[in-house]
Every structure is written in structure tokens, then in C-alpha cells.
């Protein structure tokens, strides 16, 4: 599958040729992330950090932007990560994985072994091997470091084999091909794929959907930059082409809500996936009628697509969606329950409160709650909760308190995503 790359330099999104010559520059990183996240993982790279353009406070021109992007989707982050502290901080801020480049290798002439074992062992202990990616970038078959400005004496294959024990995946960039749009060095990729057993992501020169498909068949993912920004490759085409059509004619698609509730399952062919991407509504192939059908095209209860993810075998797709009305043809909220409404969650309560303020009904108590009154009610309900003695009363008072907390959050513009992100940050700190 394709991992879209957002390379940051001087606070802008850039694409460089061979890591040096700037070919294009954009200032819409947030929009790009939302778009790219529909199709797969996104790599955010701080090029200034990789090149050593770091201030005395340890930040770069990209730091604020990078941190803002980390929770925008399934984001991996790289560029100048040299310490366990940096890696832990980035993961706590929302990165799913960290990409370790130059710091992973011993580059001194008298070094014992090619890997920085002390750092990597500590990193594995601190964040887990599953969260670590090691860059094995190469120029003419030799490992390149320090923003590709230096070539080491470490052969690519040797370095990759040594790096594999510390990482869940390797990121290989063929530097001399990077940004040139002339294709990857496929023979070198085949050698590397045969040498290591972990997940392998390749980058540098990939310029067509056909090439992406060929790499997928080798068991490699692709990190794509220039081809995306120039329009040479469409992510929708790449996503569809990487699915395992040799194994099945129709791909099962599981629809789940943003909160994780499974809603339905259907089947899609290539045309159904393309229509899903074109219209933003989940579309299937009807095995009974032999036609494409977009969920909700008759009832109006469509499924707004947030993102699609293929499983490890590329023969099943998970679609994260926002349901607009009941999902099942019976009128139930999902195809797996008889309930006519979604299960109660903090987000559902928040949404109901938001709707009551936006469209107040006659006699609505919620709509009467001003800033001062809602704070008084939070204090009052918190006190009542601390004084409750029976199980039943504690449940009752918790429900009351959660209601007023949600009202206060809404009025202050605080979302549950922000709250859970903060809890996640504390857990990973």
C-alpha cells in the first residue's frame, strides 16, 4: 500500500530532488493530511531536523506544524530523531511510529559494529520494537546519513540486516532516484526484500501505479512524494491496485463508526471502490442484483467515508464512516442489533447537546444553561457524587455530572477527541 509523505522545510510542505533541489513548495499541510489519511498511513518528515537546522531550544521551523499534524490520522514521523526522549515525546503527542535515521548507525571509522546498539536497545525498551522504523537510505548501495549529505562505509544489505532486529519495519530510499520520477531501482529492492523479513517500505523515484503494484507483489509498501504532488499517481488508483484481486473477485468491506461500532459488511469490486472515492459515500457491489449501489441512495441513510484501510493480506477493507441515519434496511442502527439509535457514548451525548444549542426546542433545559449556571451545576453535581453512598445513586450522580461536563465542554469549544488525546499523551509519556 501507499504511505503518503509530507516533507516539511522552513514551515512549508516541500518536495526535493535528490534531497537537495527544491522542486515545489506548498502551505496546506493540514489539508493534505486529511486527504492523504483517507487512503492510508502518512509519513511526516522534518527535513530541517534531519539537516541539523535546529535552534538552541531544540525546535525547528517545522516543530509547531509537525506537532499539530501528529493526531490528524495514522501518522509516522521522522527527521533528526536522535534520542529516546525525542521518540517518546513524539509518540506521546500522537505519532504511531518513529523513523530513526542517522542516529541508528555507527559512522565512526573505528566503531564496533554498524549499529548504534546502545541507543537502539534503549529505544526498544522505552517504546517497543513495533513503534520503531529504521531508515536504510542508500546512495550507490551504501548507507547515507545526515540528511543524505554523507555516505557511510556500510553496505545497504549489511546495514538492513543489522537494523531489522531493532525495528518492525525498514524504510529504504534510493537517494539517487529520489524526486527524479524515473522509477525505483527494482533489482536493488528485490535484493533487499530477500535479505530481510520485516515490513519493507521503499521510496525514491516511484512514478506510476504499475510500479506500485509491482512492488506490492514483491511484498513492499511504497512511501510516495513527488508522484503524488505532480499528479503522476492518484491515491485512489494506487489503493485499488494494491488490493489482492488475484485472490478474490470481490473484497469484503466492513463499515465501522468513528467510535468503533461495527455497522455493516458488504462487498466491493474495483468500480465500487472508485465510486466510493469519487463521491465520498461508501459504495458496494450487489451480488444479488449485479449492480453498483451506494449505501443510502434510496433511503438517504448514507455512510460518509472518513478513511479506508486494507488488512495485512490485502483481501479485506475496513471503512471508518459517519452514518447519516440508521444503517440496516430494517431500520436498526446497525445490521447486528435491533436498536434504532446508536449506543450511548460521551460523543453521542456531546452531539445531542450541540444540536440542542443549535436548534433549541420549546422548553429545552439545555438551551437555558449559560456559562455561570453550568459551572455551578458541575460543582453541585460533583459534590452530590462524592456524597452518594449506594451503587444506584453513584450511577445516577455520575450520569448527571457527565451531562453538565459535556455542556461545559461544548460551551468552551473543548471536544472529547482533545480530552482523549490528552489522556493518551499522559499514558504514553
Task: Name the helicity range.
Answer: 25-40%
User: Which strand order spans the largest sheet, edge to edge or round the barrel?
Assistant: 1-4-5-6-7-11-12-13
Radius of gyration equals 25 Å
User: Main sheet, how many strands, which sense, barrel?
Assistant: 8 strands, parallel, barrel
| Number of E-type strands | 19
From the spread of the alpha carbons, the general shape counts as globular
* Number of distinct helices: 15
User: What portion of the residues fall into strands of 2 or more residues?
Assistant: 15-25%
Which structural class fits the helix and strand makeup?
alpha/beta
Mean pLDDT across all amino acids: 92
**Straight-line distance between termini:** 30 Å
Question: Can you walk through the features of this model?
Answer:
- With 429 residues, the protein is of the alpha/beta class.
- The protein has 15 helices and 19 strands.
- Helix 4 (84-92) packs parallel to helix 5.
- The protein is globular and about 75 Å long.
- The mean pLDDT is 92.
Question: In terms of topology, how is this protein built?
Answer:
Elements: E1 2-9, E2 12-17, E3 21-26, H1 29-37, E4 42-46, H2 47-50, H3 63-69, E5 75-78, H4 84-92, E6 97-100, H5 117-127, E7 132-135, E8 138-139, E9 142-145, E10 150-155, H6 156-164, E11 169-173, H7 186-195, E12 199-203, H8 209-217, E13 220-224, H9 226-229, H10 235-242, E14 251-257, E15 262-268, H11 270-279, E16 283-286, E17 291-294, E18 303-310, E19 317-323, H12 346-358, H13 371-387, H14 391-411, H15 416-428
Parallel strand pairs: 1-4, 1-13, 4-5, 5-6, 6-7, 7-11, 11-12, 12-13, 14-19
Antiparallel strand pairs: 1-2, 2-3, 8-9, 9-10, 14-15, 16-17, 18-19
Helix pairs in contact: 4-5, 4-15, 8-10, 10-11, 12-14, 13-14
Amino acid at each position: 500500500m501507499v504511505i503518503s509523505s509530507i516533507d516539511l522545510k522552513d514551515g512549508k510542505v516541500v518536495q526535493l530532488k535528490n534531497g537537495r533541489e527544491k522542486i515545489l513548495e506548498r502551505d496546506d499541510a493540514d489539508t493534505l493530511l486529511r486527504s492523504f489519511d483517507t487512503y492510508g498511513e502518512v509519513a511526516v518528515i522534518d527535513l530541517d531536523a534531519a539537516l541539523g537546522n535546529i535552534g538552541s531550544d531544540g525546535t525547528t521551523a517545522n516543530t509547531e506544524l509537525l506537532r499539530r499534524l501528529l493526531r490528524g490520522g495514522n501518522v509516522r514521523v521522522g527527521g533528526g530523531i536522535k534520542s529516546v526522549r525525542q521518540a517518546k515525546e513524539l509518540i506521546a503527542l500522537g505519532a504511531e511510529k518513529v523513523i530513526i535515521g542517522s542516529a541508528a548507525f555507527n559512522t565512526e571509522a573505528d566503531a564496533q559494529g554498524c549499529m548504534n546498539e546502545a541507543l537502539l536497545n534503549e529505544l526498544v525498551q522505552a517504546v517497543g520494537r513495533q513503534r520503531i522504523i529504521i531508515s536504510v537510505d542508500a546512495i550507490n548501495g551504501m548507507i547515507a546519513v545526515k540528511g543524505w549529505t554523507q555516505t557511510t562505509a556500510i553496505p545497504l544489505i549489511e546495514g538492513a540486516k543489522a537494523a531489522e532486529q531493532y525495528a518492525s519495519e525498514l524504510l529504504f530510499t534510493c537517494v539517487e532516484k529520489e524526486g527524479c520520477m524515473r522509477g525505483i531501482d527494482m533489482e536493488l529492492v528485490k535484493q533487499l526484500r530477500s535479505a530481510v523479513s520485516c515490513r519493507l517500505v521503499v521510496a525514491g523515484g516511484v512514478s506510476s501505479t504499475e510500479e506500485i503494484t509491482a512492488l506490492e507483489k514483491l511484498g513492499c509498501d511504497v512511501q510516495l512524494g513527488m508522484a503524488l504532488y505532480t499528479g503522476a499517481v492518484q491515491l485512489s488508483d494506487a489503493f485499488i491496485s494494491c488490493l489482492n484481486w488475484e485472490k478474490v473477485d470481490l473484497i469484503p468491506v466492513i463499515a465501522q463508526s468513528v467510535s468503533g461500532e461495527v455497522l455493516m459488511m458488504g462487498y466491493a469490486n474495483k468500480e465500487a471502490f472508485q465510486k466510493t472515492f469519487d463521491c465520498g459515500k461508501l459504495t458496494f457491489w450487489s451480488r444479488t442484483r449485479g449492480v453498483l449501489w451506494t449505501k443510502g441512495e434510496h433511503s438517504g441513510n448514507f455512510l460518509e467515508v472518513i478513511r479506508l484501510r486494507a488488512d495485512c493480506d490485502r483481501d479485506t477493507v475496513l471503512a471508518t464512516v459517519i452514518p447519516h441515519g440508521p444503517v440496516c434496511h430494517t431500520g436498526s442502527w446497525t445490521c447486528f442489533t435491533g436498536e434504532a439509535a446508536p449506543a450511548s457514548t460521551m460523543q453521542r451525548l456531546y452531539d445531542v447537546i450541540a444540536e440542542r444549542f443549535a436548534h433549541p426546542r420549546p422548553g429545552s433545559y439545555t438551551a437555558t444553561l449559560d456559562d455561570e449556571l453550568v459551572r455551578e451545576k458541575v460543582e453541585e453535581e460533583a459534590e452530590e457524587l462524592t456524597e452518594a453512598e449506594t451503587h444506584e445513586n453513584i450511577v445516577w450522580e455520575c450520569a448527571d455530572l457527565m451531562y453538565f461536563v459535556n455542556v461545559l465542554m461544548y460551551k468552551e469549544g473543548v471536544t472529547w477527541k482533545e480530552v482523549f488525546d490528552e489522556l493518551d499523551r499522559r499514558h504514553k509519556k
